[in-house]
Every structure is written in C-alpha cells, then in structure tokens.
Amino acid sequence: MSEKTATIEDVAQQAGVSIATVSRALHKPQLVSQSTREKVQHAIAATGYTANVMARNLRLSRSGMILLLVPDIGNPFFAEILSGIEQGASRAGYNVLIGDTQNDPEREATYAAYLRSNQADAMILLNGHLPSPLSEAPRIGTPPIVAVCERIPGSNLPTVIIDNQQAALEATRHLTQLGHARIAHIAGPAQNILTIDRVAGFNEAMAEAGLRKTASIDYSPDFGIEAGIAAARRLLRSDTPPTAFFCASDGMAIGAIVAAKELGLNVPRDISVVGFDDIHLAANYDPPLTTIRQPRRRLGEQAIALVLERLDKSRPAPDTHADNNPVIINTELIIRASTAPCTNRDPA
C-alpha cells in the first residue's frame, strides 16, 4: 500500500500558516520573515513534501535556469563569486548552469543558444564580453544579461564591478609611501579591460609621487603564476631591476616571489610584492601576500540581485546600472608581510 504524497496543503497545516504563505516562502523567500521560513522548512521536512518544480516552471513560462559564463572554472578567483550567485539563485527558486568557456568562441556560442532558445531565463557574464551570437541580437525581447567583474564598454549591460583604477592606485601608493621608486607593474593582457584600468591606476600613483620616469610595465599573456614568474625574471635581470612589484593578480604575485627566490632575493627585504584579488592562498603563502581584497562573494550576490530584479515582472523596471554607470563594490588594501620599506633608495 503506497503512502500518500504530501501536498502544499499538508505543509501549510503542519506549519500553521496559509497555503499562500508556504508558496511565498518557497518562491519569494525575501517576502517572508525568517521565523516563518524556518517553520515552513521544518514542515517540509516533517511531511516529505517535494515541490513540482517542472510544473511550476511550465506554468510560469520559464526554465528555472540561470546561465553563468566563466572563462576558467579552475581559477580559484571565481569560486566565491559563483557561491554568492548560486546561493542567491537557489533562494529565489532558480538553478544555476555554469558554462566553462575557456574563452572558446564555439563554446560561448553553444551556451548562448540556451538563452536564445529559452532554455535559460538569464545569463551572467564573468568572461568580459558578449558571446558573438548575442552581440548582434536586439535587446528588446532578449532575456536579462548581467556582467560582473569586467565591464564591457559600449554594451549597455547591467554591470557589477570594483573600481580597478582606484584599487591599483592604492596598491601602488602603498609602495611609494614605503619609499620605493623603481616599481614595476606586472600587468595582464594589454587589451583586457582589467589591465587597462589597473595600468591607469598604476600610472596615476607613479605620477602623483613624481616617479613617472622610474615606472615600468611588463604585459603578460594571462594572469597566471607562470606569467608572473616569466615577467619577474625579465625585470629582475634588467640593468636597473625594480625594488617592488605591483602585480595584476595574486597568481602573478606568487610567481614574482618564486622568481625572486630563484635569484637569491629575500621578500620583502630585497624586493616588495603586492598582489590583487586576495585569493585564499594569499594569506597562507610565504611570505603572506600584501594584496587588494576583492569582495568576491559580494560581487556574486549583487550580480544575482540585478538578475532577479529583471526577472521579477511584478516590480517596476529597475535602474539599468549599465557599463557607464555600474554598481561598484568597494575593495580593501590588505597589508601583510610581502612589503617593507625600501632599503635601496637610489632611483637610477
């Protein structure tokens, strides 16, 4: 004899609330108090109720899926951003599909087809550009698309970023205030928007300190450890090696420390190193890395909030927060043991 399948009415009776309240707790939890959500969750557990998600999505003419395009899922930088997005999506009743594009246009086009065929209700871009099939698509009638981490100039997409130029200025200013004059910026790919903004901040700080002539920039093909090692080797073997590095990522900064140690240099006694991102390894490296902390979970939370605003047809049209007026999340300079006052003040 089969057991009776629990219904939403059973949950409501168990929790001592109305059916409408149970529905809100499941589908729009932000509208329900914490205590009520907890009562509903306990009732669900007690009754064994399972919401018919497929039927609900069909009724609402939606897929219940939000698509994320990530250039490299193996990059630890993205982990907290993805966690912030996934938790926000889950609370609102959406699932998340992660597309690891590896910057492959064919992969990007494949994932873009999910959006165009209504297999996904919205897309969040962490790859810094629109997939080519969407770049020519009319905006009217296209499901919501939000950019996070990298602004896409001219896209007019809702965007969540940090102020990369200001963060780079603060990182470089930290080194100039320690007395460093020969500072090298180990930068990412020259055409990348993050690189452009961070180079601008570096140059601004060096000009502010009257050190424009002693600044140097070394562009790399990517933001990884190996790129940092190669750049640091080049710079440290030059006729006038730097006394400090500002690196465009923590991976590059770790690579710079590896190269410095290869050459018998002590960090920070002989050379100071500043990174960017504050990935988990930064605080646990030898020496612990001075870096710019990006609030990555907050970036993810804000990105999914913009998506959900645009998916909620019961609300007025939200502000655009386009690439020329983005949501900006504050960063923080974290000072650890990889930077110290300069012991060689000769700028020549």
From TrEMBL:
Molecular function (GO) terms for this protein are:
DNA-binding transcription factor activity; transcription cis-regulatory region binding
Query: InterPro entries of this UniProt entry?
Result: HTH_LacI (IPR000843), LacI/GalR-like_sensor (IPR046335), Lambda_DNA-bd_dom_sf (IPR010982), Peripla_BP_I (IPR028082)
Keywords, A to Z, come to: DNA-binding, Repressor, Transcription, Transcription regulation
Q: Which organism is it from?
A: Thalassospira mesophila
Checking PANTHER family in the record gives: HTH-TYPE TRANSCRIPTIONAL REPRESSOR CYTR, LACI-RELATED TRANSCRIPTIONAL REPRESSOR
Its recorded name reads LacI family transcriptional regulator
Q: Does the keyword Transcription apply?
A: yes
Gene3D superfamilies with a match to the protein in the record: 3.40.50.2300, lambda repressor-like DNA-binding domains
Q: Superkingdom of the source?
A: Bacteria
Give start and end of each HTH lacI-type domain.
Answer: 6-60
Q: Which Pfam families match?
A: LacI (PF00356), Peripla_BP_3 (PF13377)
